[in-house]
Structure prediction request, 152 residues.
Amino acid sequence: MRRKEKEIADPAEIEEIVKKAKICRIGLVDGEEPYIVPVCFGYEGNALYFHSAHEGRKMDLIRRNNRVCFEIDTDVEVIDAEKPCGWSTRYRSVIGVGWAHILEDEEDKIRGLAVLMRQFGEKKPDLEFEKAARAAVVRIDIENITGKKSGY
Prediction:
């Protein structure tokens, strides 16, 4: 990272950001074209989970190339000033890369959905097996993650 004073080196702080956030942006590749999509997600261990319809551009791209990147941010605020050039932002963010896996095993899917629900505050998710089994659930195994902050 070029600006070392903005780097988040503490893994616990990076994890705090990921656990606090509700939206993750997933970066995929469609031939020569980048494609980014926001998803609601859950985090546990060294993995992110999200659900999706079985069909669509995002899922097609994951099936073709499951190498992904992601961005998560929290505590974002624009700090204005009298002069526009004096404006700034406060934020904490993480960027990472990993491998996306479409889960096939029903128990893995249920677990992934439970992780997602806990991210949103549901302590004991009561998932209906038949309904949960119909969703596509994707796990991103995180290979590398870095953090950055400004104004903190």
In short: Strands lie at 7-8, 23-30, 33-40, 42-44, 47-52, 67-79, 88-102, 136-150.
